[in-house]
Design brief:
Layout lengths: L1 H7 L1 H15 L3 H48 L4 H6 L2 H43 L3 H45 L1 H6 L3 H50 L8 H42 L10 E4 L5 E11 L9 E9 L3 E6 L5 H9 L3 E11 L9 E4 L10 H6 L6 H10 L3 H6 L17 H15 L3 E5 L7 H12 L9 E5 L11 E6 L2 E6 L1 H7 L2 H21 L7 H4 L10 H17 L3 H7 L1 H5 L11 H4 L9 H4 L1 H4 L10 H4 L7 H5 L2 H8 L15 H11 L1 H30 L8 H7 L1 H40 L2 H6 L2 H43 L3 H46 L1 H6 L3 H50 L6 H42 L23 E8 L9 E8 L4 E6 L5 H8 L5 E8 L2 E2 L5 H5 L3 E3 L8 E2 H5 L7 H10 L3 H5 L8 E2 L8 H13 L5 E5 L7 H14 L4 E5 L11 E6 L2 E6 L1 H6 L4 H8 L10
Parallel strand pairs: 1-5, 4-8, 4-9, 6-7, 7-8, 13-20, 13-21, 16-19, 19-20
Antiparallel strand pairs: 2-3, 2-5, 9-10, 11-12, 11-14, 14-15, 17-18, 21-22
Helix pairs in contact: 1-3, 2-3, 2-9, 2-37, 3-5, 3-36, 5-6, 5-9, 5-33, 5-34, 6-8, 6-9, 6-33, 8-9, 8-31, 9-37, 12-14, 17-20, 17-44, 19-20, 28-31, 28-37, 29-31, 29-33, 29-37, 30-31, 31-33, 31-37, 33-34, 33-37, 34-36, 34-37, 36-37, 41-43
């Protein structure tokens, strides 16, 4: 870079020699030598510049890759407290925006080092030409530099604010993408769009302010060289009578001023990049300095033959170091090797936190915790963890279960069988090669939990930490999982197991029970010992039966209620199959014999007492329980349909599915598995355009800027160029005419250089301000267009599009539109005008030069045509390869605890590094192709200089010294201008790829309109009558119908249960009711109004749904309940009271203003579901849908939710997608779906009475009828 800078100073000497050659009558070969030296200097300068620049850019790529890798590694080690401070949006910005800013600033480092040296050398050479007159010019710098420093300080503060606002915007977008289904079901799109738009407006406001500041800086440093030149010439002429501004002095000085102009003009860009990089370095530094999880908090040792696998001695734990009181206090536990320990207690007492403490996820305040395993404690396999909320990757079922381990067919098949997944795989498109969507979107809650459990089983670890994995599955499936996986006869019988559970019927089968109450271990011991003791454990059991009894009594209080016991004599209690009912009866009987208050508990739950051992069949052996082919009336049979998106929805007959086989090892070897993986693919490859960027992308961007503003900007640049040409030609005429060499100084300056500077000053202000402002406007319009369309696309788009792919548009692509594209547009205008001015001036001085312009122009165009496709596609590949980085990061953040528990950090780091390296390849290709282009363009520019110099040599007899100086000085500039023009034209198309990608998402197919002219009556629905009229639907054109000819009606106020096997269409019915999928034919009427004629918001805002997955958004508790801010405090508190949350909410210091963490991380699962219940209560509509609302919550929360629904929605029509058959036993009617058709629709009493009914078969299969149990 230094050699390149020094070579630039050879041109003024050569130009002076050439001008002297034209006046002194030197021999011709002298002129040819000067021309040849111009060529040599230009080639050497080009080689040194591009070599140094390529090294700088390569260094920048390495910096960028290292920063992304460091940020990713750090994200896997953050404590919960640090994680709360660093949102997903912020970390995404660090990886995509901040790392790029630092990398882009690396080449500027050389400019910062060399520019002061170059300025000093130029001023010294100007001193040699003009003497002390140079001091007048230096005074300009003395004034400008402090002003520039002040502006940059202001810009730094604005940059920090803008990046924080960008973090907030991306956090909101990420949250919206993860909860889009809930947002659509509640018709909340306008609220969230307004919230994101408000943040975006603030962000654009900061961008606008920075644009104005940087425009002032650019103006100052653009005008500075002209002011320096004018003041220097004035001072030189007035400072002595013999100071004549000859052509030699004028144009040598002009060349030196042009050299001086380069470091001065690039200084604003350099300063801007430096400020941005400094802010980004501070942000990344702050993130990397966040607290890490303390790996030493858990002592990991090799196991001893008969020792304990887990020991906790006098330990206290919390989630924050600043907590005034530990979450868990004075914990003392010893878990012997190979034993099964159960952790029980009330909701929120700290059970899950205890498992997290064993994993080392919490902060240890005191005490000691030790784990011992046969494997190396720091290697994969020592500990396996099954979280309460299953974490599933966007991979195939097999890859989720293998989780990085080598494939072992026998162990794999054993894990599938024990975790009850064999039938599920038969129902999936490609078996275990079926791709699972992000967050397990195409699996039910129970299936996700069983895949999570199978992953742990397959690892064959020494210690298993199981956080209530049986809560999300049906009772008889839970029984199978317990006996075949967890229990004393299960696959893990020789492993050390710590099980958090709310199922009291498992407690007699564990080796030891630990009871937690308010963060302390209140009791621990064997089941028999704790019952005899009549302490907290006995109280816990009483409370369980109290809730259980209240729930059953409430369910029987309705006149239309029915229990299986009333229909089938001596049948066990409807809630469980016979074995579990018998277990509960034994526990209650034992509890009654051990406690004086047991009679009260028995009175509260007479149904349980009725299910005595004498009335129930003996418990079934585990091996028998696994032999049935049709044992999945569970979440397998009832809930897969509720969560599977359109791409993998199946309508195959059950009879066809039973004949299918799982993929075998041989199939994997011969390539069949690859075909299966292709057929089971859910996420498509990201689309990428080919060829030139379409004209519509340019029109889209220009329209977003505003046509009139763009035209005004172009006119300003045209005026700037015209004045520039005129003043340069006038300067040539002035210096060439002896009559004006040293006379009428003031007049000459007023009509030439001074006039040029004044006009340049004002016109450049207008032009630069115009470009900055209109491009900021364009970025805001593009963001709004993308955001609006994102809220309008159907759910199938989000089911098949990774979150990282969408976030990439809102982060990096929007950053290009915000920052890079405005500068590129301005540079294109400037370079085009400068190139045209150079050609005009040179042609004016030496018209024959036009003959060389045409072939040079053709060669330039040819190079651009060859280069452009490479640059454009490399930019597209760079953008597309960035999405997998963000997708992997989002998944890793969500499952960080699981990754750490399985000691898989290095594997995930390797995946991230591979994807970063893959992205860097395309980024490097883009930069290397730029250097290829730059070098060849400079060679052509050198040819232009040689031609101009040669014409000046050959035509010295007809050219004045002024014209020679003018021609060659402009020829020296045209090389840079032509190179700049072609490069900027290429960069314009390359960076317009970002607009193309935004435009792609701005033109996605949308749902039906939110509002239409057809409005429902006021207060609709007033009765809640639902009628399906020959209704059929499919998930998208080309797929099979998932509902076929449904004709049925739900009467007002009825409670309707919907059951059926997987793929029967249960969830499709709900999605059709809310119009997340549209009718293929037929229609639905609610209170006589056809819903397909209503706007989506008119429909969805009038209905209420309580979904399975509890969704809480970051923000206040109030905004979560009432996002449109339409309700009073009294109404909100009433809803919280009805949802049994008021005591918790009133205990919060901020009350309704309490800030919920991102994704509700500072609330328990039960609390989140109760918040969703309160949200539903705010509407109190006449039509309520329960979409497995209690599938993943504990029994206590289940009881609260169902009791509240029965009380608060007593007069409403309630549609219940069944989680357990027992849930819908007290319904008015039950609809049984099979392959998208209504098979049966009648009261449950009537269906159970018919021995040949399908519902009777399902109930018997589930073990709910006398003499039958789940097989």
């Amino acid at each position: 870079m230094m050699i390149h800078g020094l070579l630039a100073f050879a041109n003024p000497f050569l130009l002076e020699s050439l001008i002297n050659f034209s006046t002194n009558g030197e021999e011709l070969w002298h002129g040819i030598l000067y021309t040849f030296l111009f060529f040599v200097v230009a080639v050497l300068s080009s080689i040194t510049f591009h070599a140094s620049f390529q090294l700088s850019l390569t260094c920048g790529i390495k910096f960028r890759s290292a920063l992304i890798a460091s940020i990713y590694r750090k994200s896997l080690t953050l404590t919960q407290e640090s994680r709360a401070r660093s949102t997903v949006g912020e970390i995404v910005n660090l990886m995509t925006v901040d790392s790029n800013k630092i990398a882009d600033s690396i080449p500027s480092f050389w400019v910062v080092l060399w520019s002061p040296v170059q300025i000093v050398i130029a001023l010294v050479m100007l001193w040699a030409q003009l003497g002390t007159a140079v001091l007048a010019g230096i005074g300009i710098f003395v004034v400008i530099i402090p002003v520039n420093g002040y502006i940059m300080a202001k810009a730094q503060k604005l940059e920090e604010k803008e990046m924080k606002t960008k973090d907030e915007r991306l956090k909101l977008i990420n949250e919206v993408l993860n909860a889009m289904k809930v947002i659509k079901l509640y018709a909340w799109e306008p609220s969230f769009q307004q919230k994101i738009s408000h943040v975006r407006r603030t962000e654009v406001g900061f961008l606008g302010q920075m644009s104005y500041l940087f425009s002032v800086v650019i103006i100052m440093w653009t005008v500075a060289p002209f002011l320096v030149m004018v003041l220097t010439f004035i001072t030189y002429i007035y400072s002595g009578d013999d100071h004549i501004l000859t052509a030699s002095k004028a144009f040598v000085s002009l060349t030196l001023f042009n050299i001086l102009r380069f470091p001065i003009m690039v200084l604003p860009l350099t300063v801007t990049q430096t400020v941005n990089a400094y802010v980004s370095i501070k942000r990344i530094q702050s993130f990397l300095f966040e607290d890490d999880i303390d790996e030493s908090s858990v002592l990991k040792l090799p196991s001893s033959p008969d020792g304990n696998s887990v020991e906790i001695e006098g330990a206290s734990f919390g989630w924050k170091r600043t907590d005034s009181e530990p979450l868990l206090k004075d914990v003392n536990i010893q878990v012997p090797k190979g034993k099964l320990i159960a952790i029980v207690g009330k909701v929120g007492c700290g059970k899950s936190s205890l498992l997290q403490s064993v994993l080392g996820e919490t902060v240890k305040f005191c005490g000691r915790i030790t784990t011992r395993s046969k494997r190396n404690p720091n290697e994969q396999g020592s500990v396996a963890y099954v979280p309460q909320e299953a974490w599933i990757q966007n991979l195939t079922v097999r890859d989720n279960i293998l989780f990085g381990r080598d494939f072992d067919q026998a162990r794999y098949d054993e894990a599938l069988r024990a975790c009850q997944l064999e039938k599920d795989l038969q129902l999936l498109t490609a078996g275990d090669a079926t791709e699972i969507g992000e967050r397990g979107i195409n699996l039910s809650g129970g299936q996700k939990q069983r895949v999570s459990l199978a992953r742990a089983v397959y690892q064959d670890s020494d210690i298993y930490l199981l956080d209530d994995p049986l809560a999300a599955v049906d009772s008889h499936v839970g029984k199978k999982l317990f006996h075949e996986v967890i229990g004393k006869s299960g696959l893990l019988r020789d492993k050390t197991r710590i099980l958090v559970t709310h199922g009291i019927h498992w407690l007699p089968h564990v080796d030891e029970i630990v009871v937690i109450d308010n963060g302390r271990i209140s009791e621990q011991g064997s089941y028999e010992h704790l019952l005899d003791h009549d302490g907290p454990f006995a109280s816990f059991l009483k409370e369980f039966f109290l809730h259980d009894g209240e729930r059953k009594r409430a369910s029987r209080s309705r006149d239309v209620s029915v229990s299986i016991a009333e229909i089938a004599a001596a049948a066990p209690e409807e809630e469980e199959d016979e074995e579990l009912a018998a277990e509960k009866a034994k526990i209650l009987q034992r509890l009654a014999s051990c406690t004086s208050s047991a009679h009260e508990a028995a009175a509260e739950s007479p149904a349980v007492v009725a299910a005595s051992p004498s009335q129930s069949s003996p418990p079934q052996h585990a091996s028998q329980a696994s032999s049935s082919v049709n044992s999945h009336c569970s979440d397998t049979a009832d809930r897969l349909d509720s969560k599977r998106p359109s791409i993998v929805r199946q309508t195959s007959k059950i009879s066809q599915l039973t004949s299918e086989k799982l993929p075998s090892r041989d199939e994997d070897v011969d390539g069949t598995r690859k075909a299966a993986e292709q057929s089971g693919r859910l996420i498509d490859e990201e689309t990428m355009e080919s060829g030139s960027v379409s004209l519509k992308s340019y029109v889209f961007y220009i329209a977003a800027r505003g046509y009139h503003l763009g035209l005004m900007t172009i006119m300003a640049h045209l005026a700037y160029t015209a004045v520039n040409i005129a003043s340069s030609v006038w300067l040539s005429t002035w210096t060439s005419d002896p009559l004006f060499s040293n006379a009428s100084v003031t007049g000459n300056l007023n009509n030439s250089a001074y006039l040029r500077d004044i006009n340049d000053y004002y016109l450049s202000i207008y032009g630069i301000f115009g470009v900055g402002v209109v491009c900021i406007v364009a970025s805001f319009v593009l963001n709004e267009s993308l955001l609006t369309r994102l809220f309008r696309v159907p759910m199938s788009f989000f089911d098949t599009t990774p979150t990282g792919r969408i976030v990439n548009r809102f982060s990096k692509d929007m950053e290009v539109v915000d920052r890079e594209l405005p500068m590129i547009v301005n540079d294109n205008l400037e370079s085009f005008m400068a190139t045209v001015s150079c050609i005009i001036v040179i042609s004016y001085t030496t018209p024959i030069f036009l003959a060389a312009v045409v072939p040079l122009g053709i060669i330039y165009a040819g190079i651009q045509v060859f280069y452009l496709p490479i640059s454009r596609q490399s930019r597209r590949l760079d953008s597309r390869s960035r999405s997998p980085i963000l997708t992997n990061f989002s998944e890793s953040i969500a499952g960080a605890a699981v990754i750490r528990a399985f000691r898989q950090q290095q594997r995930f780091v390797g995946i991230s590094d591979y994807r970063v390296d893959n992205n860097s390849r395309f980024y490097f290709l883009k930069l290397a192709s730029n250097r290829w282009l730059g070098f060849r363009l400079e060679l052509l520019g050198t040819a232009a200089v040689v031609i101009a110099a040669l014409l000046a040599v050959l035509g010295r007899d007809s050219l004045t010294p002024g014209l020679v100086g003018l021609s060659v000085s402009y020829a020296l500039q045209i090389s840079d201008y032509l190179k700049w023009l072609v490069h900027e034209l290429t960069e314009l198309e390359t960076n317009t790829v970002a607009v193309e990608r935004l435009n792609e998402y701005s033109n996605l197919e949308t749902e039906a309109p939110w509002t239409t002219d057809s409005l429902p009556p006021s207060g609709w629905p007033s009765r809640g009558r639902v009628e399906f009229c020959n209704y059929a639907t499919r998930y998208r054109p080309g797929l099979d119908l998932v509902l076929q000819g449904i004709s049925v009606s739900f009467e007002p106020g009825h409670k309707v249960g919907i059951v059926g096997r997987t793929g029967a269409g249960k969830s499709s019915l709900t999605l059709g009711l809310f119009r997340l999928i549209e009718s293929a034919f037929g229609h639905i009427e609610v209170d006589g109004v056809r819903i397909d004629r209503l706007g989506l918001h008119s429909l969805r805002s009038a209905l209420t749904i309580l979904p399975q997955e509890p969704t809480v958004f970051s923000g206040s508790l109030r905004s979560n309940l009432d996002p449109f801010d339409e309700r009073t405090d009294e109404e909100l508190w009433a809803a919280l009271d009805a949802a049994h949350l008021s005591s918790w909410a009133r205990g919060l210091s901020a009350g309704l203003a309490h800030e919920c963490g991102e994704g509700g991380t500072n609330l328990s699962v039960g609390q989140r579901q109760l918040v969703c219940l309160a949200r539903a209560l705010m509407r109190r509509s006449r039509l309520l849908v329960l979409d497995e609302a209690t599938a993943a919550v504990d029994l206590e929360t289940d009881s609260l939710i169902m009791a509240t629904v029965r009380q608060q929605f007593a007069d409403s029509t309630v549609i219940i997608i069944a989680h357990r058959l027992a849930t819908i036993m007290d319904s008015d009617r039950v609809m049984v779906l099979d392959s998208g058709r209504v098979r049966e629709f009648a009261p449950p009493r009537d269906l159970l009475a018919k021995q040949d009914s399908y519902f009777h078969f399902l109930a018997k299969e589930a073990g709910l009828l006398p003499g039958a149990s789940a097989k």
